[in-house]
Amino acid sequence: MTPIEIGLISVVAIVFLIYSGVYIPIALGMVSFVSIWLMRDNFTLALNLLKVAVGDSAMEYTFATIPLFTFMGLIVSKAGLGRDIYEVMTMRFRRVKGGIGMGTVGANAVFAAVTGSSIASASVFTKVSVPQMIAQEYNPRFAVGVVAGSSVLGMIIPPSAMLIIYSFVAEQSVGDMFLAGVIPGILLAFAYVIAIWFMGRFTPAFVGGRVVDDSERMSSREVASKTLPTVSIITIVLGGIYTGWLTAVEAGAAGALVALIIAIVRKSMTPRAFWDALLETGHITAAILFLITAASIYSRMLGLAGLPNQLEDLLVGSQASFWGIMLLYVLLMLFLGTLLDTASIILIVVPLFLPLAEAMDMSLIWFGIITVVGAEIGLLTPPLGISCFVIKSTIDDDRISLKDVFLGALPFACVMLIVLFILIEFPILSLALI
Q1: Which residues contact 329 (CB under 8 A, 6 or more apart)?
Q2: Least confident span in 48-62, 198-212, 361-375, 402-416
Q3: How far is the C-alpha of 345 from the C-alpha of 142, rounded, in Å?
Q4: For 321-354, b where at least 16 C-beta lie within 10 A, e where not — what string?
Q5: What is the value of pTM for the model shown?
Q6: How far apart are CA 286 and CA 390, in angstroms?
Q7: What does the pLDDT look like over 395-418, one tens digit per residue?
Q8: DSSP 8-state class, residue 299
Q9: Where are the alpha helices (DSSP H) in 306-385?
Q10: 16-20 — which CB contacts under 8 Å span 24+ positions?
């Protein structure tokens, strides 16, 4: 077989193995290693490339962003800041039809800016938002749909684990990727709020809910005490990166320190919880390092096979337009999103399309935002909508089925798709802060 044939077979084999339940890094690394061995008929070369991939991943300075931001997010979650932001946001929207849903979106957007995890957002707000919405007679499908839809903000608004993974695969600045995600994340949050308003106005049966007594209001002092800790962390992290005073690694360290101080001052961090956060940080960091290492050898295998260049020649030779190529890219991500998780999609698709994006003089920062938003739609679509599964497993209500969660999330997946096409049409939205 030719290298091209081996490369094509390897990509199909990787997708098949991942969908069959094989751990993603193992599928990527194993198939890539065997493919290089077959293409070059040299076991030693394949072994050396694996050694280089491991070394390059572990010794990369920017890799330090992963444990630092992960630790920061875990501390913030355990300190109860998500619940505080939720209470403030829902208080401001409670007199509007679907107001608690709007408040949930706003709280999720703020929470995403200090955690960077869709799974954490889905878990936290399933516990604090869904029971309250159901108690106020909101449609259960709408309640879980709002949480599922807004949870994806955790992977778009920085600091985001997916933006970090893309930056390693595409060899882009983590700080630039973070700044590029700010406006698209805020845009998506606003789009969700507008969509909820329209649903409340034109499909009130789907939203449900009732007007609640607004006699009890939070004092300004109480609002400040609940919001200032989170706002201070966001200001230090994103403000430090934007002004250039801090690198992404330094911002992660500063954010983690401030989050820990806040948790200690609030007396919301027990020694046991601190130890659990450290252990979980280690587990997540090791898993992501394994992913990045496997992606590195996968990229080298694709390069040896010549698949990216073949794809570039095919699409350029067919004289496909910019929108034609982007539609193909989006459709591919949407299809893979029904089968694979976001990290798998990024690791498999990006190395194939990067040479084409560079040849067409696309900004790789903008291309990364498009990739993450497109892949994130998969978190809301069956059969592998991870956020939907997390919500179902977290909620303690037999009246809400997994089907209800997916149907409730469907309108928000459509909103994401609309925002995605807006971001494709107007790259300045992703690049304005850089």
Answers
A1: 349, 353, 370, 374
A2: 48-62
A3: 28
A4: eeeebbeebbebbbebbebbbbbbbbbbbbbbbb
A5: 0.84
A6: 22
A7: 767 778 888 888 988 999 999 999
A8: H
A9: 307-317, 322-337, 342-359, 364-376
A10: 18/339, 18/340, 18/344, 19/339, 19/340
Other C-beta atoms closer than 10 Å to the C-beta of 283 total: 11
Asked if 163 contacts 248 with a C-beta cutoff of 8 angstroms, the reply is no
State how far the Cα of 115 lies from the Cα of 158, in Å rounded to an integer. 8
The pLDDT value recorded for residue 424 is 95
| Domain spans of the chain, in order of start | 3-431
The dihedrals phi and psi of 77, each to the nearest 5 degrees, come to: -65, -45
Contact 329, 362 (CB under 8 A): no
Q: Please answer whether residues 109 and 148 qualify as being in contact, where contact means their C-beta atoms are separated by less than 8 angstroms.
A: no
Phi, psi dihedrals of residue 71, rounded to the nearest 5°: -60, -40
Task: Kindly write down the DSSP assignment for every residue of 56-113, as one continuous string.
Answer: HHHT-GGGGHHHHHHHHHHHHHHTTHHHHHHHHHHHHHTTSTTHHHHHHHHHHHHHHH
Burial of 255 (0-12, 13-18, 19+ CB in 10 A): buried
Contact 209, 197 (CB under 8 A): no
* Rounded Cα–Cα distance for residues 355 and 236 (Å): 35
**Going by C-beta distance under 8 Å and a sequence separation of 6 or more, which residues neighbour residue 86?**
103, 104, 107, 125, 128, 129
3-class DSSP state of 136: coil
**Measured distance CA(165)–CA(145) in Å, rounded:** 27
Cα 84 to the center of its chain, rounded Å: 22
Q: Which amino acid is at 398?
A: D
Contact by Cβ (8 Å): 430, 182:
no
Under 8 Å between Cβ of 169 and 299: yes
**Residue in this structure with the two tokens 């882009």, named with its chain if needed:** 172
What amino acid occupies position 279? L
Q: How far is residue 380's CA from residue 394's CA, in Å, rounded to a whole number? A: 16
Q: What are 202-232's pLDDT values in tens digits? A: 888 888 876 655 545 677 777 778 888 888 8
The radius of gyration computed from the CA coordinates of the chain, to the nearest angstrom, equals 22
Q: How many CB atoms lie within 10 A of CB 316?
A: 13
138 - beta bridge partners?
208
Q: Are the beta carbons of 55 and 240 closer than 8 angstroms?
A: no
Spatial distance between the Cα atoms of 139 and 143, rounded to a whole number of angstroms: 6
Contact 421, 154 (CB under 8 A): no
On whether the CB atoms of residues 123 and 73 are closer than 8 A, the answer is no
Query: Which tokens in the block code for residue 144?
Result: 């879980």
